[in-house]
Each structure stands twice: as structure tokens, then as C-alpha cells.
Amino acid sequence: MDWASHYPAYVATKPETEHLGETTMSQIASLDREVTVADIGCGFGGLLVALAPKLPEELIIGMEIRMQVTEFVQDRIKALRNQNSASRLYQNIACLRANTMKFLPNFFKKAQLTKIFLCFPDPHFKARKHKARIVSPTLNSEYAFVMRPGGIVYTITDVEALHKWMVQHFEEHPSFQRIGKVEENEDDCVKSMMVETEEGKKVERNKGEKFVACFRRLQDPPWP
Fold first, then answer.
1. What's the chain's average pLDDT?
2. Which end of the chain is more exposed for a tag (fewer CB within 10 A), N or C?
3. Which pLDDT belongs to residue 127?
4. Residue 39 annotated as catalytic
5. Nearest Cα to 209, choosing from 168, 153, 159?
């Protein structure tokens, strides 16, 4: 995955090849660090904007399947960067259009991510549509593949049935363990997830309930 166009402030060029002892003029654009945080189904980018100053050393990507919403978030980030051109603020966030349910491993290598956010995903209420939910045994294995041991998957929804579904499927997966409430409540990312997303604000206005669960990626057991 070529991330250079999404994070221009973090581009570090290096020689592509050497020819007859002399470095060619052709250069490859690469980043001086990896993308390590993903907001899957980022919506209108509220969490991305909130996380940018909280995780200043991390590159954060929002992934959204709706084209017009993706373009809105990209324009929002561009405007924020222009407004803060004297600093690197908001240079560490970006958004791209992607269907992560089909192509997540195409974007990240094994054990690349430290945090994944699944905020207010579509509940797909009808039983025949449950296979389209963003949490499932197959997708959880993909999350496990791209996450580093010790990394955290953050989930939040205002639908209790979906919350129980996500908890059940993550707890049944051998690569994840649920984080306790004390650690969860002390996590600044959880606090941001609760109040900074557009869906979260809507639930707040309607005096609805929010259900949070976080899961740590476990170390893989040694080969026998």
C-alpha cells in the first residue's frame, strides 16, 4: 500500500536502485513510520479529528465505504491541515474509500496495527443480514492478522443486541481477550470514542445508551 499521498508530511524518500555504483535519479516515496491506527467505518471523521492531537506520533487512517462521505472527510482534513500549516497538527490523519470487509489485508501487513476502532457499525437487525455485520469469526481473524500482540480493538454501539453479538464473537476468538472495565474507563481513546463521533453525539442528544467493549490482541502461542 502506497501511503505517501495520504501523509505528505511524513514522506521520506530513498533511492530505488543503484546502477553501476551510482544512485539513479528515480526515487521511491515512503513514510518514515507505519500506519498503526485504523477507524473502520469512520463516518464523517469526528473520531479521526479527536485522535489526531491525542496520538501525535501515530499515523491514523479512516476507512469509509461511502464515496461522498469519504470525500467530505478528505476535504475536512485538508482544511484542518491548511488552518494549522505552522504545525504538524492533523498531518497524521487521513481517509480513504475502502470496503474493509472484503479487502482489509490488502491495506495492512501482519501485526501492523496497534488500534482498531469499530464505532456504531450497522446493526443489520434481520437475521439473514447478520452475515454482513462488521464483527464475525472470519473478520475477527482478519483483525487478528493485522494487529500486533497487545493491540486493542475498540467497539461501541447503541444497540444492545449488536453489543452482545460483538462481545460473544470476540470472546470466542482465541486471539482476543476482553479488557476489564477499570482499564477501559482509564483509556483516553474510549473517552473520545464515547463523545467525539457523530453517531455518539446523536445518541447523546437522544439520551440513548452506549455499549462499549474493548479487546486485547493476545500473543500467538508457539508452534508445537
1. 91
2. C
3. 87
4. no
5. 159
